[in-house]
């Protein structure tokens, strides 16, 4: 009897324990779901998260607030970017001088060149604020694209201002060499100067930094593809212009063939860019997302960045509209003076295109990438550096050729041999440094020194003689068989 009671008591106790365990499990589940719902509803600053907005980018405000807008914009993304904001007084000064003293060409060029930097910096800041509100990979891609808007605007203004009237012999296609040099110069500025400063800044105080192969290997492969594509028209022209065994009716036939090859190449590179974007955003999205999320955790200042006040979606769009408008104005004023600076002041087309134009158009992107490298976010830094380089090579460069095609302008990819060699060597050097997935300050310093050598060489590079500036610049009115080409090659034609 006693034994039965004991067994019954044990059974009741066991049942009670099971019930208690079940209740505790249900309570934990409810608490977990409640915490999860709270996490989704409110971000780290306690701001209610708007549907479709990433918690990191939630500002807790709606609409436009002038005081907050100015205060947050002045703070910018980093100390480097904030320092650039001291150049804002040059913006109204540049516009005023353009209309008040239109004959002061040097002053107009210099002031608009400087004013372009804070305007581009605002695009970079607003782009980063907007990117915070979106998924990681899409945000980085959008931020990189917005950073390239300055470059696209400059290319389009240069193309629009180019003289395509054959009757104007002296100025026929006079800006085409500058555009071509600017395409390559932008790639060099990213690959050597910006990546060099990223490696150098990130290597200070650290033995080395590591980055993921998903970022570096894909970037290196695409750069080699882009370099190959960009160089084919120049190799095609050089091969035919120096050949004694090729029968051509005249220089115009070679010009047309190079133009056709350039346009087809531009379309193919454009398709490559679309494939690259699809690769990152869809088929391999999770890989890049995991890499970038891991990189975020390395940032020692992440908690400070999360606590900073942020722009609203409306303020981001407004900032982009203001900045892009100013960039367009400065680009127009700047391009108007390039001809004077090149012809009257002796600045070469190579230096103008390879060095001066890319430096101002890429300033904001470079500051962002260097700040990320300093914070030990090397994957983010390389995503910006390589992403911007790939965008120039596969999108911006081909875009200006395609637009020129639509505008009936002879914009081709027949680069100077000097520029072509420099580009290929730069891609090889950068790929070699990226291969091991590690970087240090020495590699960064070497990249910067190589860029300085290129800058000095391009400054001393002479302009082509009239009618020999390239296939598209050769005047069709000359009609002489020797009037060809980049580097002054004589076209040999079999009669």
Give an account of the 3D structure.
- The chain has 495 residues and is an all-alpha fold.
- 71% of the residues lie in helices and 1% in strands.
- It has 18 helices and two strands.
- The protein has helices at residues 2-41, 66-75, 79-84, 90-100, 105-132, 136-147, 149-161, 176-203, 213-241, 251-283, 285-298, 302-307, 313-344, 349-361, 363-374, 378-406, 417-434, 441-459, and strands at 209-210, 438-439.
- Strands 1-2 form a two-stranded antiparallel sheet.
- Residues 1-39 and 467-495 have low confidence and may be disordered.
Task: Describe what is shown at a glance.
The chain has 495 residues and is mainly α.
Report the major sheet: 2 strands, antiparallel
Structural class: mainly alpha
Question: Cα distance, first to last residue?
Answer: 125 Å
What is the N-to-C order of secondary-structure elements (H for helix, E for strand)? HHHHHHHHEHHHHHHHHHEH
Instruction: Determine the fraction of residues in helical runs and give it as a percent range.
Output: over 70%
